[in-house]
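Notes from hallway chat w/ T.B., transcribed later so I don't forget. T.B. wanted the structure written out for a chain they're using in a teaching module, and asked if we could keep both sequence and structure tokens in one place. Agreed to drop them here.
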Amino acid sequence: MPAHAAATMVYVGNADSQDLSLFELDSAGRLTPRGTVTVQAPAQPGRSMLLAVAPNRQFLYAAYLRGAQSAVASYAIQQRSGVLRQVGGNTDLADVMSYISTDRSGRFLLSASYGGNKVAVNRILASGAVGDTLQTVDTAPKAHCILADPANRHVLHTALGGDVIYQDSFDARTGKLTPQAHPTVTLPANSGPRFLVFSRDGRFVYVIDELDGAIHVFPFESAAGESAAAGTVRTEVQVLSTLPPGFSGKPWGADMHLTPDGRFLYTSERTSSTLAAFRVDPHSGRLTPLHWFPTVAQPRAFNIDPSGAYLLSSGQLSNSVRVYSIDAASGELTPLGEYPVGKNPTWVEIVQLP
């Protein structure tokens, strides 16, 4: 009897309909709808619907606006079908959140509050459900992203309104964040650092600005070893624009992802509704601009499937997801199809089922 082929599932978080659109992605880049999960009913249109997937790919977390603060729903991902089953009750978070992620062990949920100027850590229970808030840390205005490094010993988080990146040590046993000896990295005034990603080997950090559309390349001191420099963002080696040639208007940088092999980096820009592609030098971390591609209207969120063959871009104004194939040699994107989702999609996660 042939072995069961593992499915690749796509989960799209929709802020205004307060639901999740589920699809299965096949090997040809086609999406098959697999249903809709209502997160909050009646819907209370929110700033965003935030998603995060546990490292073991067994749980998905959806944060949404409930009253004056965010709450998070925890779902078990059924391993053959990709269907979501809620575990535990919905948990209040420390404020209205703009970003969630898990640490690399999946034992803690990290979150950043744009309106509350803070980041927070919540426990994740053995059941997979999000538990109580363990810690909150005040930041400069408009905290926007928080992410553990690949070694799970340090956490970086951005404050868009303060033009700063925070550097914290992370206790993977307790979830506690502690400022490092050099706790911040300052970016140019009014740049608005938004999201960040680590290279797969943890040697570089890429940061996209919301307000000027730039992307910054920083070496990252590996968390291996006990030196005082471990977990530190080093002197920037490159800054370049993600804006398309001939751009006019107010920059509005959004999302950023690396292909799984680390060879290409893509960004989205909402004013021009474009995706930008860059080649990554594996030794220096530096980027070479390759192409700009028109995409769905106001692409706040996109993601790349685990095989690195497809990129899926969602449009806040189109209420759709467009699938592109990625040329493995050139990084070129070719549109394959477009699919309706819920209202105001703000997050895309793609999961290869175990």
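Follow-up for T.B.: DSSP finds no helices and 29 strands in the chain. Might be a good example for the class.
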